[in-house]
Design brief:
The longest helix is centred in the last third of the chain and has 28 residues. The chain has about 200 residues and is mostly helical. The C terminus is likely disordered.
Length: about 200
């Protein structure tokens, strides 16, 4: 909790650290702020991880140009985070990478910068169960955002992405066929809520 509060408190001074501070130690303070925030991306406490993610998002919104030269390090840390995040921190991380696709579009066209990140996201994508609708939708949207930002760069990763996508669609189709079958053969009021049995997108 102390680490999370510390991150939240320091983030209140982001504008000063990144823009207003004109002292000679400006760059040293900024790099220390950035590096320690990135370290907390890989904290053992999800609350601290989210605090670090929110702090980093504040940095981007204040002066994204100052982070640009450190994007290789940022992407490497985010790639590692994708292999360990679950639940709320994962959703926040996905939102931040989507945000970065808009803010650093040209950087996403550089294969040397994003290769590890893409590999990590695809690894997470392929590890999802076909009925993990909570995570499928945001990661699918993220991959689409990356594809738009990087243009044709992702052609080398397209097969991994499409194979899993087709598997998910086949599972959805099978579930929908079962749903239609049950509806067409029900002779009494179905005693269970269909919303508990089938994905919301099918109801």
């Amino acid at each position: 909790l102390i680490r999370a509060i510390t991150l939240w408190t320091i983030s209140r001074f982001t504008k000063y650290i990144m823009i207003d501070n004109t002292n000679s130690n400006n760059e040293e303070i900024f790099t220390s702020y950035l590096s320690n925030t990135l370290k907390r991306f890989l904290d053992s406490d999800p609350i601290v991880e989210e605090a670090a993610l929110n702090s980093f998002s504040t940095m981007i919104s204040n002066k994204k140009e100052r982070i640009e030269i450190y994007l290789q390090d940022v992407f490497n840390v985010i790639a590692t985070a994708f292999t360990k995040y679950e639940s709320s921190p994962l959703v926040t991380l996905i939102d931040i990478v989507s945000y970065m696709c808009d803010e650093y579009t040209e950087s996403f066209k550089n294969p040397l910068l994003i290769k590890n990140l893409i590999d990590s996201i695809l690894q997470k994508w392929n590890s999802l169960n076909n009925d993990d609708y909570k995570n499928i939708s945001p990661i699918f949207d993220l991959l689409c955002s990356i594809i738009r930002a990087s243009g044709t760069l992702l052609k080398d990763f397209a097969k991994k992405f499409l194979v899993k996508s087709l598997s998910i669609f086949q599972s959805l189709l099978s579930s929908y066929k079962v749903f239609l079958f049950i509806n067409s053969h029900t002779i009494m009021i179905w005693p269970f809520s269909t919303k508990k049995l089938f994905p919301k997108v099918l109801i």
